[in-house]
Structures are given as structure tokens and as C-alpha cells.
Design a protein that fits this description.
This protein has 7 helices and 7 strands. It has about 230 residues and is an alpha/beta fold. It has a single domain, classed as Spore Coat Polysaccharide Biosynthesis Protein SpsA, Chain A. Helix 2 links the parallel strand 2 and strand 3. The mean pLDDT is about 95.
Length: about 230
């Protein structure tokens, strides 16, 4: 169990995406991806004092200042990092007044406020240091060398007969901050059960990485929200 005040809820963002430049602050429907995600957190039942936004570029810093949340000034080195070491990209790991962190992906515009709330609540209730949002997939999968990986009950061309495989949602993550200092994000992936797998709805996990995804998901978002 974790006390709610021990758990930070954090958005980390930068503007240096090469595949979809400046996606965090470009107009997305009538808002931006960054505004949309911060608003969900502010409107949630998660206390504002638990909410942190980690950014470096001045445009993002000014955007965050509009909201009643904590601003962490991410270093330029962190903003330019390609992901390793963990203590470089997550340079807040030993500086926040919390023992644990829930990381929310602001590039997932269909992620619901209530889903974030449930993830936060369930993480507070679990004994696991790490928790990871996943979706259940029934499909056929092969390894890079052609080995068939899908557990099957019947050999027929119908994915309904396949046993589900868990796929990373890349929307919600949780970890102890101490483990980040040890170079471990959430937990050891090769140890079954060490990271709690938290099931999500597939329609919430559309993650914008590419320009075509930005345009397609914006059109879908407008359609669903009648904007």
C-alpha cells in the first residue's frame, strides 16, 4: 500500500520530436495535446499538489504556468536525451517530494480522466513498485526469426481461438523513484509478476508519434467530440 501523498502524477514533454515536430503545442482540435492532458489531471480527483509537469523549452514552461500544478524545470540534457541513462531523461527522480511516480503520456488524446484516476488509485493499493498499462490482444504473432508465438487452442484461421497476449499500451506507467536511481524503470521485465500489468481499453491508447497519426487522430477526436 502507498499513501496517495507519496505518489506523484507526472507529465514529461519536449518539443524536439523529429517524426512529428512540435506536436505538444500545435493546435489539436480546439486545444493542444499538452493542454488537453494537463486539463484532465487538473479536473481529476488527484490532488493538484501531486501533479508535476516536467518541461524545458520556454513555450512549454509558459503553457504549464496557466495551471495550478507543480512545474519541474527539466534540464536541457534531459530534453535532448535519447532515453538512457534513466537518471538523465528522468532527472526529477531524486528531486520530487514523493517516493513513487505515475507517468502519463500526453501524446494519447483519447486517454480518459477516469482511467488516469483508476490507475492512480490502483497503484496506491498495490504492493508492487511497478505498474504498466497494457491491452489484451487476440492475434497471430511471430518472432523476428519466424517462430510462431501465439498460444492457440485450435489451428483454424480465426483469432477468436487464440489465447490473449498482453501488449504495452504506452499510456500509463508507475515506478518507485528509488528504482529509477538504480537504472530500473518500473521493474525487471523478465521477472513474471514483478511489474503489475494493468488492463486498459484499446480505444484509449492511440499514441501520436508520426505526422499521419496527428492528422488522423485529430480528425477522429473532432468527430467524437463534435468539434
Amino acid at each position: 500500500m502507498k499513501a496517495p501523498e507519496e505518489v506523484a502524477v507526472l507529465i514529461q514533454a519536449r518539443l524536439s520530436s523529429q517524426r512529428c515536430p512540435r506536436k505538444m503545442i500545435r493546435q489539436f482540435a480546439d486545444t493542444t495535446l499538452m493542454d488537453l492532458c494537463i486539463q484532465k489531471l487538473v479536473e481529476s480527483n488527484i490532488p493538484n499538489e501531486n501533479i508535476w509537469i516536467s518541461v524545458h523549452e520556454p513555450e512549454l514552461v509558459e503553457l504549464v504556468k496557466k495551471y495550478p500544478v507543480n512545474l519541474f524545470h527539466r534540464s536541457e540534457k534531459s530534453a535532448m536525451s535519447e532515453g538512457t541513462p534513466l537518471t538523465e531523461i528522468y532527472d526529477w527522480w531524486d528531486k520530487l517530494p514523493h517516493k513513487y511516480v505515475v507517468l502519463v503520456n500526453a501524446c494519447a488524446p483519447f486517454l480518459k480522466t477516469e482511467t488516469i484516476e483508476r490507475f492512480f488509485s490502483d497503484y496506491c493499493s498495490t504492493e508492487n513498485n511497478g505498474m504498466f498499462g497494457v491491452v489484451s490482444k487476440k492475434n497471430y504473432f511471430w518472432s523476428h526469426d519466424g517462430e510462431f508465438l501465439t498460444p492457440m487452442n485450435e489451428v483454424i484461421m480465426n483469432t477468436k481461438t487464440a489465447n490473449p497476449v498482453m501488449e504495452a499500451a504506452h499510456c500509463l506507467y508507475a515506478s518507485s523513484q528509488a528504482s529509477i536511481g538504480q537504472g530500473i524503470w518500473m521493474g525487471r521485465f523478465n521477472v513474471p509478476g514483478e511489474i503489475k500489468l494493468w488492463h486498459m481499453a484499446e480505444e484509449e491508447i492511440f499514441d501520436i508519434d508520426y505526422e499521419w497519426e496527428f492528422k488522423m487522430y485529430e480528425a477522429l477526436y473532432k468527430s467524437l467530440n463534435n468539434t
